[in-house]
Please model this.
Amino acid sequence: MFRNLIGPVQAWLLSQGQCVGCGMPLSEGSTRNKKDGSVLITCKCGRTYFKFGEKKYRRAKMSEISE
Ligand SMILES: [Zn+2]
Model:
């Protein structure tokens, strides 16, 4: 039950441009441009996201963060 709930909530937070862990606006996170042109956002709480488009975000996998 819990697992069914967490997905939509996280998706909603991300659609609002907010961290799924702490709710901080990702526009306030630290950004890092990767070599392939993608933009990594690291939140204060340590979660990492990719930014794509004007205000779209998705969670970054561990393997995508290190290079
Ligand atoms: Zn956070």
Summary: The chain has a mean pLDDT of 88. The chain is about 25% helix and 25% strand. The longest helix spans residues 2-15.
